[in-house]
Amino acid sequence: MSDKLLSMSDAIARYVPDGSSVALGLALEPLIPFAAGHEIIRQRRRNLTLIGPISDILFDEMIGAGCVSRIAAAWVGNVSEGLGYNYRRATEHQQPHAITVEDYSNYSVGLALLAAALGVPYIPMRSLLGSDIARNHPHLRNEPSPLDGTPTLLVPALQPDVAIIHVQRADAEGRAHAWGGLGICEEAALAAKGVIYTAEEIVPAEVILSDPNRVLAPAFKTLAVVHSPGGAHPSPVQGYYNRDHKAYAEYHEHSRTPEDFAAWLQEWVIDQPDRAAYLDHLGTERWAGLALREHHYAAPVDYGY
Amino acid sequence: MSDKLLSMSDAIARYVPDGSSVALGLALEPLIPFAAGHEIIRQRRRNLTLIGPISDILFDEMIGAGCVSRIAAAWVGNVSEGLGYNYRRATEHQQPHAITVEDYSNYSVGLALLAAALGVPYIPMRSLLGSDIARNHPHLRNEPSPLDGTPTLLVPALQPDVAIIHVQRADAEGRAHAWGGLGICEEAALAAKGVIYTAEEIVPAEVILSDPNRVLAPAFKTLAVVHSPGGAHPSPVQGYYNRDHKAYAEYHEHSRTPEDFAAWLQEWVIDQPDRAAYLDHLGTERWAGLALREHHYAAPVDYGY
Amino acid sequence: MAAGDGAYTPQELMVVCAARQIRDGEVVFVGMRLPLLAFALAKRTHAPSAIGLFENGLVRDTPSRELLMTMGDAPNILGAEWATRTVALMGLLAQGCAQLGFVGGAEVDRYGNLNTSYVGSREHPTVKLPGSGGGADIASLAGRLAIIMEHERRRFPERVSYITSPGYGDGGDWRAQVGLPRGGPAAVITTRALLGFRDDTHEMQLLSWHPGSSIEDVRAHTGWELAVAPEVHETPPPTSDELRIIRECDPQGFWTR
Amino acid sequence: MAAGDGAYTPQELMVVCAARQIRDGEVVFVGMRLPLLAFALAKRTHAPSAIGLFENGLVRDTPSRELLMTMGDAPNILGAEWATRTVALMGLLAQGCAQLGFVGGAEVDRYGNLNTSYVGSREHPTVKLPGSGGGADIASLAGRLAIIMEHERRRFPERVSYITSPGYGDGGDWRAQVGLPRGGPAAVITTRALLGFRDDTHEMQLLSWHPGSSIEDVRAHTGWELAVAPEVHETPPPTSDELRIIRECDPQGFWTR
After folding, report:
1. How confident is the model at residue C134, as a pLDDT?
2. For the segment B28-55, what is each residue's pLDDT rounded down to a tens digit?
3. In the predicted model, what is the mean pLDDT of chain C?
4. Do residues C179 and A126 lie in contact, with contact meaning Cβ atoms separated by under 8 Å?
5. Which of A94, A137, B261, C218 is the most exposed place for a label (fewest CB within 10 A)?
C-alpha cells in the first residue's frame, strides 16, 4: 500500500488545478475543510467549479477571493447569520467577476452525486417539479416516466474532479473514519474521480481497519491524506471541537464591503501560511473555549469471530 | 416511545400475513433470519413473495415448505454446496406447487429497493443490457436515456411489505445496530413499509443512541423487535458466532428428495416450537464450536462535544 | 405583546403557532430556528411522540439538550436516533414519510409559492438569496407545509418572481398537474397572523390575526387583496406553560427576542 | 497432473492461470472459490497492490487470514478496508473502477455468454440453476472478465439457451450495440485449457492447452468447431512457489483437490 500522506500545500498544488470541479463542505455545517479552502485561495487557484449542498461561508470566501467561476449547490451563505456578501456581489454586480450559478436543492445535488456514484446516467425524482429551479436549470430535465407517464425531473450524474473531505481520522494509506452528521460525504467521495482527506488525526492503519463499516470510501479513490488538526474551524468536528459561532458573526460583519472582505482575507488567510499559524492567530484561549466538555463514546462493537 | 418488543410468533402472526411480500436474507450470507423464516413455516403462511439478493438455503426451505408463490431474487440455492433442490423441484416440476420467478442480479435487486427507498419511480442502469434476465423480466425495461439516447435498463422501485432483518442488537423502541457485511439491509429497511428486527441482544436505548451512525434505519419504520439469540444459525453473526458450514452440507444431503426434505423440515422446524428448542436440538457442543475464538473491537469513537 | 405577566414576543407567539401545527405521532421535517423551538415545545406539550427529521441526515425523537445555531451543531448529533446520509433521509421524505415540514422564505405569494433564490430577475437579481437548501424538497414532498415568515408587504407579493419552493403554483390542482406527489402549504405563520389556504382554489386566506394586529393591519401588509376565512378570529396567545417551556429552550432569547 | 514433486491438481493450475490474469495495482472483483485463491496468490507474487472487491460490500487489500466457504464469512470482514452496502460497492463496478472480474458458470458459449439460470427453456427448464447473483453485473461492467469453467462438452454449447451474464452476444460489436459500457470476456480458464477471444469477431479461441490435454482433447470437449490461436502452446505448469502458496491458503485442499 502506498503512502498518500502529503502536506496541505502539496496536496492542493498537485490535485486541485485551475479549472477543477471541487466538491467540499459535504457534511453541511460540520467538517467543512476550511484549511483546504484557504490553501486553495493562497495558491490563487482560478476558474473552479464548487459543488456542495449548503455551504457555510467557505464558498463565500472562495468566491470573494476570485477562485470560482461556477457554483453547483443548494445554498450559499452563512447559516447562522444569513446572506453571503461575496456571493451577492458576484451574482448581483459581477464582483470580483461573474460566476455561473447552477441551483440545486439538497436532495437533488445529493442525487446528482449518487447517480455518478452508482454509475447511472441520471436519477428521476419527483422533487422540485413546478419550481423555477427545475425550469432554469442547465441539466435538470422534465420527462414523463416511461413506466406510467407521470412527470419526473431527471437529475443527471455529477462527477466532481475531486472531493475534499475533512474527517476525524485517517491513515496514511488513504482510508478515513468520519462520524456525526455526514450529509453527502459518501456520495461525493464515491462519485468523485479522486478524494483528498484532511484529518484531525493520522492514525495507524489498524485503527481504521478495526471498524470497516465506518470507513467512508475505499482507498483506491484517495489521492492524498493531509494531517490538518483544527482544519475545519470554525465548523465543528464531533468529538474534537465545537462550532465557533462567533467566527461566523465576525465574518458576516467583516465581509459587508469588498474592502472589509479584503482585510479579513488578508488577516485570516493570506497572512497565515498554514493552519498552525491560523490557530495561533485565533489564540489559545479562544481555541480552548471550543474544546470538548464531555466525552460520549460509542458502545463497543466486536468484529471478532 | 412505544415498546415494540414481541415474541417471534406474535411478530410473524401480526406482520407477515398470507400474500405478503417479504424481504429477507439481505446481508447475503450472514445475518440470515432463519428463526423468523422457520416461524413463518410453522405458521403455515402461504402465497408469500420473497425478495432478496442471494439466498443461502432459507428461500429453498420456505419454497419446499409451500409458503412461497413468487421469488424476486438474484440467486437462490446453497452458497457453499450449490443448487437448492426445493427451488429446482418448484421450478422444474411445480412441487410442492408452481412458483413465479422474477430474476434479478445483485445490483439490480439492490437498485430496485434503493429506488423505493429514495421515493423515485426507477433507476436507469447499464448492467444486464443484452442479457436474457433483461429480456424476460416482467418489470425491467429497456429504454434509451433521454439525455443522450444510449440504452439503459430501467429498474422500477420495489417496495416490500415487510423486511425481516437479523441484527446484533436492538432496543425495545425499534432501533438496531448491525455490523459486518450488510449487503442490501439498509436499502430494504428504508424501502419496506415496515421492518421486523430479530436480534441477538435486546439492549437499553442508550446503547443504540450512543452510536447513531451505526443505526440501520429510523424506528418509525419498525413494526416489531424480537429477541432471538442464535436466530441466524447456521449463518454467521459477526462478533457473536461463526457460520455452521456443516449445516449447509447436511441440508444439501437431506433435501435431495421431497421425502428427505419433509423429514428434515419435521426435525428442524416443525418439531421445534422456537429457537431455544432448535438450539437445544443442535446441541451445546456443536453450538459452542461456533463461538468466537477472538475478539476484535472497533476503535473508540467519541460523539462528545 | 403587552407588558406584565402575559408579555411575549412575536417570535414566541410564532413558535406557539408552529407547535400547534404538529400533531402527536407525526414525523416532522424540522429545520432550524423557530421550528426547532416549536418541535421542542410540541414534544413537551401535546405531541410527545412526534419525530424530528433534519436534512443533514438526522432523526431525533428528543430535542437536543442545548440551543442550536445550526442543525449540524454537535449537540444535535448526540442522542440522535439515526445519523445517516442526507440522501437516505430525504428519500424518506420523498416516500411520503414526513407528515409535516417547516420552511422559511424571503417572499411568499398568494398561492404559497416561496422565493429564497432571486429577488428581481434571475439574470439581474437585485438581491441574490442563499437558495433552496432542503426547503424546495420539503415544500415538494412533505405531507403538509408550514411556512414561517416576517409579515411585510414586500415579502408578500401577489406573485413571487422566482419559485424556489413550490406552493400551489397558480392555484387549483396545479400541484397534481406538475406532478408533485402530495402536499402543499397548510399554514403561513407570520409576525402578524396565521394564514391558511382554501381547499378548492388553494388561495391564501387569513385564519387569525395575532393580538395587537387586526384584519386591516394584516391586509395592509399583504401585497394583494387577501381573502379572509369565515371563521377568522384572534390568535389565542401563548399560555404561561408554553412561554415557560420556550424560555427554557432559548433562555437567552437568541431566536425569540 | 503428473505424480512426484511437480504434481498438482487441475484446480491448482486453474488458480495459477487465474492469478496470472491479475495485473499489479488492479481492482479486481474477486468472487469465491478458485478466484479467491487466485487473488491471494497474485497478491503474494506479481500483484502485491491488487485490491479485491466483493459483492456483499467488501473491499480488501489483503486476503483473509482463513479459507472462506462464503465471501460473507466472518474472517473476510475482519481486516477489510471497507464494509459497505452492496449497492455502493456495485456502483464502483458500474463506474468502471474494476479492471477485472471473475465469474463461474454452468455453460459458456462461442462468444463467451454465460448461463447460470435455466438449462433447457425458461418456461420448462430441465435444470433450474441458482441464477446470477452478482455474476451478470460483473460480466456487464468489469473492464475484463475471466471465466472459470469445468471443460465438458455439455458446458460448452455453441449457443447458450439463456444469457445470464452477457459475453459478446453473437460477436463483433454486439456489446456496444446493446449498450454495455465496456468489458467482455478476456479469458476462459478451464480444467483443460486457457482460452481467449479474437479482437475482431470476439469468437473464443484456444490459447493454451494444459499439460496432459491437447488441442484435439480440448476441441473434442467443446460443442463447436473451436478456433485455435496462431500462438497456441502448452500452458506453463505452476511453479513450486505458486503451489506452496496455494497450499498454504487451502491446506485441506477444500477448493483445489
Report:
1. 96
2. 999 999 999 999 999 999 999 999 999 8
3. 95
4. yes
5. A94
Contact (Cβ atoms closer than 8 angstroms) between residue C114 and residue C108: yes
State the residue for C-alpha cell 452476444.
D169
Q: What fold is seen in the domain B8-104+159-288?
A: Glutaconate Coenzyme A-transferase (3.40.1080)
Q: What is the CA radius of gyration of chain B?
A: 19
One-letter amino acid of D79: G
For B235-263, the pLDDT digits (tens) are 999 999 999 999 999 999 999 999 999 99
C: neighbours with 3+ CB pairs under 8 Å? A, B
**Could you give the CA distance from residue C44 to residue D108 in angstroms, rounded to a whole number?**
66
Residues of B in contact with A108 (CB under 8 A): none
Task: Give dist(CA B98, CA B69) in Å, integer.
Answer: 7
Every domain of chain B and the residues it spans = 8-104+159-288
β-strand pairing of C100-104 with C144-149? parallel
- The whole-angstrom distance between B117's CA and the closest CA on chain C is 6
D234 part of the active site? no
Residue located via cell numbers 442563499: C130
Q: Report pLDDT digits (tens) over D113-169.
A: 999 999 999 989 999 999 999 999 999 999 999 999 999 999 999 999 999 999 999
C-alpha cell at D84: 459497505
* Mutant choice from A209, A225, A301, A302 vs D, greatest count of D C-beta within 10 A: A209
**Mean pLDDT across chain A, nearest whole number?**
97
Interface of C with B (CB under 8 A): 27, 49, 51, 58-59, 61, 74-75, 77-84, 87-88, 91-97, 141, 181
Q: What is the mean pLDDT of residues B263-283?
A: 98
Contact of C6 with C242, CB cutoff 8 Å = no
ipTM passes above 0.85: yes
Strands B100-103 and B222-227: unpaired
Which pLDDT does position C1 carry in this prediction?
A: 45
Residues paired with B298 in a beta bridge: none
The C-alpha atoms of residue D76 and residue B180 are separated, in whole angstroms, by 9
Note the pLDDT of residue D257: 87
Cβ contacts of B214 on chain A, cutoff 8 Å: 213-214, 298, 301
Q: What is the pLDDT of residue D5?
A: 53
User: Which DSSP helix (H) or strand (E) runs through C89?
Assistant: helix C86-95
Which residues are paired to A167 by β-bridges?
A199
Q: Which residues of D touch A (CB under 8 A)?
A: 27, 49, 51, 58-59, 61, 74-75, 77-84, 87-88, 91-97, 141, 181
Cα separation values, C251 from C3, C38, C243, Å: 19, 15, 11
Nearest to C235 by CA among C180, C185, C177, C187: C187
Q: Report pLDDT for B1.
A: 53
DSSP conformation class of D236: P
Non-local (6+) Cβ contacts of B24 within 8 A are B32, B33, B36, B37, B50, B51, B52, B58, B163, B164, B165
Please give the residue of chain B at the shortest CA–CA distance from A150.
Answer: B121
Q: Which among B121, B214, B52 is positioned nearest to A122, based on CA atoms?
A: B121
**D-chain residues near A305 (CB < 8 A):** 74-75, 77-78
Q: Assess B187–D contact: CB distance below 8 Å, yes or no.
A: yes
SS (H, E, C) A57-88: CHHHHHHHCCCEEEEEEEEEEECCCECCHHHH
Residues with Cβ within 8 Å of residue B250, at least 6 apart in sequence: none
Q: Is the pLDDT of residue C3 over 90?
A: no
CA distance A198 to A227: 6
- Global pTM reads 0.98
Q: Can you list the domains of chain D with their CATH numbers?
A: 2-249 (3.40.1080.10)
Candidates B28, B81, B147, partner chain D, best to mutate (most D CBs within 10 A)? B28
**Partners of residue A74 in chain C, C-beta under 8 Å:** 131-134
